[in-house]
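so my prof wants the structure for this chain in the tokens format not the other one, which i didnt know existed until like an hour ago. anyway here's the sequence
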Amino acid sequence: MIPAAPVAGTAAARSFPGTPAYLAAARSFVCSCLPASCPRRDDAALVISELATNAVLHSASGLPGGSYQVQVDLGAHAVEVTVIDQGPASVPVPARRPDGEGGFGLGLVAELADAYDSRPGPAGRTVWCRLDW
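here's what i got, hopefully its the right format
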């Protein structure tokens, strides 16, 4: 049986363990929520990679037993991708890796997205972006 293509107005959510091993699964989940003809599929894959990576590296979601949630809201001409993490880690994590790599993810998301926001919540931080087409 072939699953039905995603349709506008649908929303999906899934939780992922806060380990780097599940970043590809988060990316696959977001892409599976988009129609095959979506012109922003590559952008959606890139922004979820950045947002999920930030949840794992820079929040309590990346601590042992941590997790984060990914939400996808599909509209007729846009997709909203949201990551809800478990808030600040108990030990500060450097924004840049020691080798100087990284630290550009949210700038990249802001550049690609048609709208973008980050806000603290009672159980963690919510970061979302909208990609129009």
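also thought this was worth mentioning. Confidence is low (pLDDT under 50) at residues 1-5, 91-97.
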